Amino acid sequence: MTDYRTNKKKTSKILRLMAEKYPTKEAVYEKLIYLQSYLSLPKGIEHFMSDLHGEYASFFHILNNCSGVIREKVDYVFGVRLTEEEKAEFCTLIYYPKEKIDQMRAERRATPSWYRENLGRLLELAKLMSYKYPASKVSGFIPDRYASVIVELMNTHPEADQAQFIYLKKLLNTIVQIDSGADFIEAFTVLIKRLAVDRLHIVGDFFDRGNRPDAILNLLMEHPSVDIQWGNHDVLWMGAALGSEVCIATVVRNSLRYQNTDVLERGYGISLRPLTTFASHIYPDEAPLKAAERAITIMMFKLEGQLIARNPDFQMESRRLLHQIDFRSSYARLGDGRRYELESAYFPTIDESCTEADVYELTDKEQEIIEDLRSYFTESAVLRRHVDYLYQKGNLYTCCNGNLLFHGCVPLNEDGTFRTIRFEGKEYCGRGWFDFCEQRAREAWLHGTPRALDFMYFLWCGRLSPTSGREFKTFERALIADESTWKEPSDPYYRYIDTVDCCERVLQEFGLDPKRGHIINGHVPVKVRKGESPVKADGRAIIIDGGFCRAYHKKTGISGYTLISNSRGLRLLEHQRIADVREALRANHDIESVSETIELQSCHNTVGDTDQGRVIQDEITDLYNLLLAYQNGLLKPQA
Ligand SMILES: O=P(O)(O)OC[C@H]1O[C@](O)(COP(=O)(O)O)[C@@H](O)[C@@H]1O
Ligand SMILES: [Mn+2]
Q1: Which of 139, 514, 542, 596 could form a cystine bridge with 507, CB 3.0-4.6 A?
Q2: Does ipTM surpass 0.85 in this model?
């Protein structure tokens, strides 16, 4: 009885709210007709990318060419009506309108007929690409300042009627005559790019290795429809920006290793001066960058050792190794009980005779340096804006249209079952562990608690972290010459992902249809050169770390992947070579992309089949109820 009453109360509350929004019967009709028909349009295109690792030029190009979709549409619309060169030049105009127009002007080729011709082509392309959207959505994509004229252009039908033909000609002539051709070309290219990608998913790792993660984020922040799944490099930077000292030391170390200090110094206004001055003082024989790397590496190991000791639940004890160094000889004892020779036995910031606990203490000077860095990191407004954006648009995982997106792994046991993780006296596994990890990562942002800041470091490199799933061998890689110690054992997930059974269990665990969903991961570079494929378990899982990262090109053999999900299925694009804007402008070169169909459905998916479709369906039900309430007099519509 109570249930019935509360439900009734709730329903009428919803209806009253709806009535405020749709006060007349006509308003309800209008919305119902719009929503009902929208459900039948083809589903919008989703693009997935991951592991961008600061490679701005490639990302910029792929964002501009919409992962190759523009080129395909141009081929489709203009077929043999244009030569290959004309099509390539037209594509370059769409990718880089400002630069291309400047070039045409400089070469005195930007004549009125050039403007008219290209505006005509852009219009034709935009019309074709807009067919899968309702008109109101298309007008939402048009840059405001040009909206009324572009809407007018989009509504012309020159093929149908002579008067329309003349009308269109007049519109285009006037645009060019009054010198607004360049502005309209640019506005059309914005519209076309918005029509080409309905949603962009970035499956983690913006930072480290490449030198412009800041520029990538600036660009992305202008994109109208993005979601992000955090990678381990992202959580590391997020932790650093929020003030975790060990995350800061690691970020600085990574930047020095890849000679990317510009990101910190210019991009985020973080000065490394005190560190480099100190480092060249204590390592006078080293080059400045190398000296700074050595100095921050030891600080990092000290801070990491302290963190591991105060967080036994991280299960990272095997990574606390600084005290295993015999400072009098040049050896360290590792977990296997064996002694390994160190690359260098010179540790000017460690007192040889100190106790085990003291090894992990920072010297006064080190303390001063890390505090100084900390204030730079936490006070950088640009970094703060980027991290806020990562928190606002990002999650540890996303379920979208039946697919499961996350960067690393779901921790598994050796036998492939979900691994139970004990943390603060509670047990977690599978999705529950992801939810807990995300909650703790958000605590770092919202409250900056020490425990949550420590957790960000665990997420970066913990063996049980969903973004990592690997036992990092940073100590061995930094200090020990014997490379056999460098191999990083990883979670059984990375083996089991090859099996259909595992993928299906994971999908089910996250509430998705195991027979129809896909797992989409990044994190593990696919070594195409060695014959590896990004497609696992008959297409149930796809790993799209295609190595945008230049440092890994030798290993991967390609320069990035984009996964595309459209109304007919899934397609993978393998981008063959690095983009270069100048080259694109000079010779109209595009990134060469090889396309592989992973799944082709016999029928088109519609908006009705998507998550958004389900939300719309609910709204339709509410609208019908409102209509009923208006009809049976429960609510009075406005006249
Ligand atoms: O998430 P990614 O890109 O695999 O990066 C993490 C990896 O990078 C490393 O820190 C190694 O870095 P380097 O390539 O600079 O030696 C590994 O220890 C770790 O597995
Ligand atoms: Mn990663």
Answers
A1: 514
A2: yes
Instruction: Say whether pLDDT at 189 is over 70.
Output: yes
Q: List, for residues 19-51, the tens digit of each pLDDT value.
A: 999 999 999 999 999 999 999 999 999 999 999
Does the residue 344 lie in any domain? Answer: yes
Residue listed under structure tokens 């093929």 = 159
Strands (E), 283-407: 325-326, 331-333, 339-341, 394-395, 397-400, 403-406
Query: Looking at the domain assignment, is residue 106 inside a domain?
Result: yes
Ligand 1: which atom is nearest the Cα of residue 51? 3
How many domains does the chain fold into? 3
pTM assigned to the model: 0.92
Taking residues 267-285, what's their average pLDDT? Answer: 96
* 502 located within any domain: no
| 168/20 same-domain check | no
Residue 349 falls within a domain, yes or no? Answer: yes
Q: Looking at the structure, tell me whether residues 249 and 306 fall in a common domain.
A: yes
Q: Closest ligand 1 atom to the C-alpha of 470?
A: 20
| Residue in the block written with tokens 């593990």 | 524
The alpha carbon of 563 and the centre of ligand 1 are apart by a number of angstroms equal to 24
Residue range 119-134: average pLDDT? 95
Calculate how far, in angstroms, residue 233's C-alpha sits from the geometric centre of ligand 1.
9
Same domain, 188 and 314: no
Going by C-alpha positions, the residue among 627, 587, 541, 630 that lies closest to residue 203 is 541
Q: Which residues line the pocket of ligand 1, CB cutoff 6 A?
A: 205, 232-233, 257, 470, 472, 474, 477, 488, 523
